[in-house]
Each structure stands twice: as C-alpha cells, then as structure tokens.
C-alpha cells in the first residue's frame, strides 16, 4: 500500500508566528499611546478642555518607544521569513519584499519621534519631539500595505468560493492592515497640517490648514490602531496552525508566485 505524501507546513512557521506576535504587542502599545494622547494633550489641542494629569508626555512617549521598537523588530523578522524561508520554497518575489521593506523603513521613521523626545525633551515640538517622523512614517506604512493588499487581491489567491477557507486569512489580515493605515494616514495628516508649530519657523503657506476639524484625529488614531491589532491577531491565528501549502497559491498571500504588481519580478 502506497504511503500518502505528508502535507507541507508553512515554511518557517515559527518565524512568521514570532513576527505576528510581536506585531500584536506593537499594536497594543500603539493603541495605549493613542488612548493616552486622547486623555492628555488631545483634550486641549483638539477639544479645548483640560488634560488628565496622569497622561504625561513621558508616559505617552514611553508607550510610543515600546510600540515603535516592536514594529521595527517585527518587520525585521518578517523580512527574515520572506527571504530565508519562503523564497527557497516558493521562489523570489519582489512585491512581497518591497512591501515589507517599505514598512521596515516606516518603523525606522516611527522611532525618531519618541527617541528624540526622551533623549532631549527640549528639541522639536514641546511634549512631542520631532513632529514630522510619525506622519512620514505612516505614509510609508500605508504605501507598503497598499502594495501588499493590491498584490494579494489581484493575484487570485483569495478563494471567493470558500471565503472562510483557512488560506484566506492572510488576505483578510493585510486588508485589515490597509484599512487601519487609511484611518491613521488621514488622522495623522490632519494633526500634522493643522498645527502650525509642526513646521517650526519655515514658511508653510498652503500646507497649514487651521480650519481642519480636529475632532476626528483621536478617534481615527484609536480606530486605526485597533484595526492593526485585529490584523495582527488574524496573522497570529493563521500562523499558529499547520496547513497544506504544497501549492503556493493555496498557502499565504505574503509570498504568492502567481502575480507580482511590480514589473520585472523574475
């Protein structure tokens, strides 16, 4: 009697699981940071009320430092997984690497703001530090999510006939990430462009929009970080279990071989 061929598992499953778990904690600390911002400086910046005494600038930036450091670590692990575990099995994929690298750059930019404030709180915007790095970083993060989500959806790896299929989870995860960064890009852009102190002494001209309705900023940031947490949990649940990935198309959206939106992949 012929023995059945064993199913292949997710290549480097422990690595992508580690990356996903790190992203879960990064999202939790980011959510806490935005909640503390809402209770603290957002009250007088956006709502004209008094801030909570416990929501100090040091506490907020400490949450930001932990979150941003974890985002950096998570994307380092993700690139490790893509290059050293999936490329040998499913072949090289520039789209997957471009998306992850763009988000790694974003995480480096994220770290500038909290580290800058905690190292020297007299530099940059009072209570914030370097004001531009978070805004530029979220633009990079969103761009990377757009690369990944568009690539996954156009590749045809999502099984529309079985939407609850296990192999569809990475697609749900990245689309949740992309929705999250839509909220964060809009909220952070509104915060950055409506605060004249962000621009220092330079002539900001049309960049400054004092009439922006700032009431969306904090809710947008909290919703965005919550969606990042949900997306990270989706990836964590997917990576916790073995699945049949002998066919790359039925495996993970992160490294599909069927479609690459970036030209000249192979």
Structure write-up:
The chain has one domain. Helix content is 62%, strand content 0%. It contains seven helices and no strands.
Keywords:
7 helices; 266 residues; mainly alpha; 62% helix; 0% strand; disordered N terminus; elongated
The count of strands amounts to: 0
Q: Report the radius of gyration as a whole number of Å.
A: 20 Å
Q: What is the ordering of alpha helices and beta strands?
A: HHHHHHH
**Distance linking N and C termini:** 41 Å
- Figure out the total of helices: 7
Proportion of helical residues: 55-70%
Give the strand content. under 5%
Number of domains: 1
pLDDT average, as an integer? 82
Overall spatial form: elongated
Give the uncertain stretches in residue-range form. Answer: 1-7, 198-208, 244-266
Sheet with most strands: none
| Alpha-beta classification | mainly alpha
